[in-house]
Amino acid sequence: MKTAFLPLLALLAASLPLPAETVKDREGAVRADKARFENDARWAYNDIESGFKLAQATGKPLLVVMRCVPCLSCMGIDTAVLMENDALSALLDQFVCVRVMNANALDLTKFQFDFDLSFSTLFFNGDGTVYGRYGSWTHQKNSQESSLAGYKRALEAALAVHKNYPANRAALQGKQGAPLPFVSTLDIPQLAERYQRELNWDGKVVQSCVHCHMIGDALRNTYRREKKPIPAEWIYPMPAPETVGVTLAQDQVAAVAAVIPGSHADKAGVRAGDEITHVQGQPLVSVADFSWALHRTADQASLELAIRRAGAATTATLVLPSGWRHDTDSSGRVAAWPMRGMALGGMILTDLDDSERRAAGLDAGVMALRVKGLGMYGLHAAAKKAGVQKDDILVEMDGHSRRMTESSLLGHLLQNRFPGETVQAVFLRGGERVTIRLPMQ
Asked: What per-residue confidence (pLDDT) applies to 298?
């Protein structure tokens, strides 16, 4: 069944920032989304419970789209899914489809995915078993990207998993939600203090909405409030495949487009052109499923990959040493900003490349992080207030001077230093070394 789609104007209005003078436009976009979908023939709107009941009654798998309507990111793929070309419609007809645009009442035992994305899809059996996840950083970074090839592959793969259920139940165990300290979104203190289970449709609905990224932020803040180390999987959630050395094609389920020389994947014998079909026995439905497998992996582990190579089945063992997550680049995530406030006083840091290092007289193996930007308000103003200046070069922090990325430095500080402490940082400024003590927050 082909349905109409949310007008592009409303989607564009939804991308506007949150200040008071523009909140009306964002409100309009959210209300237009509700008006469009609450009586839609295909999409059950914000009603996950009815979706599970219908999936059980019909025997169809359940597809749940998590979409942050007020965000510009992923607008292209969201619009493309709603437009439904004939090929996509034929696939969607085989699912019970639910559209969710807020996370206020989310069951965190079932709904664990990449909270930093503005468009995600989860596939379930009616009994609540997770079949897989879809999410795309290509679409997140480029709001106009509307390609559906990878999404269609994910739908097809999820249907294949459903066809084999429940015989494959044991293989799906690793896809289920990991133990969390909270059952639902509003069990998290930081969110319970500000939000209600139901949206305020009679008032400012956008301000009453829990965005998906707020879940990760609140989980990290819970550990921070208690002065406990933030678990590595929440500092580096859903690691990109490049973390272990592979680039996966976005228009396939998990086809290897490139392998980074000397990486963990390279050492395991993974090759460009390989198709990774399973990780630790889990059938993959998308690139996001590969990231989920990494998300659930221990600090030190070996992962068994099932691979289809030139039409033949083979395997590879991906050996991940202790600390492998610190190779994740989390700088482009929404989550990076609040973490910078906690540990860096609002500094945005970029690693100097080799030519910049030579110009500054710095070796390739030492810390050299340029202060690309500084926050101006709240926790993010701490570095500026302490005396840090834009274009300073951080060469030592908390006694560490080896080369590391901003992401790796954040991991060290968020696991070893806690609110109320201060950390010594050394900067190069105009050829002089400047020592500043930064507060952990």
From this structure: 94
Q: State both tokens at 357.
A: 């290092």
Q: In the 8-state DSSP scheme, what is residue 284?
A: P
Q: Could you tell me which of 68, 99, 102, 104 has the C-alpha nearest to residue 81?
A: 99
User: Does this chain's domain 8-187 share its CATH topology with 243-326?
Assistant: no
Asked if omega into 166 is within 30° of 0 (cis), the reply is yes
Please report, for residues 219, 252, 266, 422, the alpha-carbon distance to residue 134 in angstroms, rounded to integers and kept in the order given.
22, 12, 25, 40
Domain boundaries, the chain: 8-187, 243-326, 335-439
- pLDDT tens digit string along 159-211? 999 999 999 999 999 999 999 999 999 999 999 999 999 999 999 999 999 99
Q: Hey, CA dihedral for 189, 129, 324, 253, is it positive or negative? A: negative
pLDDT digits (tens, 9 = 90+) for 341-392: 999 999 999 999 999 999 999 999 999 999 999 999 999 999 999 999 999 9
CA distance 232 to 255: 27
Q: CB of 121 within 8 A of CB of 64? A: yes
> 243-326, superfamily in CATH?
PDZ domain (2.30.42.10)
- Measure Cα distances from 335 to 104, 175, 200, 410, 438 in Å: 18, 23, 26, 12, 21
Q: How far apart are CA 129 and CA 63, in angstroms?
A: 12
CATH architecture for the domain at 335-439: Roll (2.30)
Helix (H) or strand (E) holding 319: strand 312-320
Helix (H, G, I), strand (E, B) or coil at 41: coil
Residue 433: strand pairing partners: 428
pTM above 0.90, yes or no: yes
Beta-bridge mates of residue 373: 348
> Domain 8-187, what fold?
Glutaredoxin (3.40.30)
Answer left, alpha or beta for residue 19, where phi above 0 means left and psi between -120 and 50 means alpha: beta
The confidence score (pLDDT) of residue 72 equals 86
DSSP-derived secondary structure letter, 111 = -
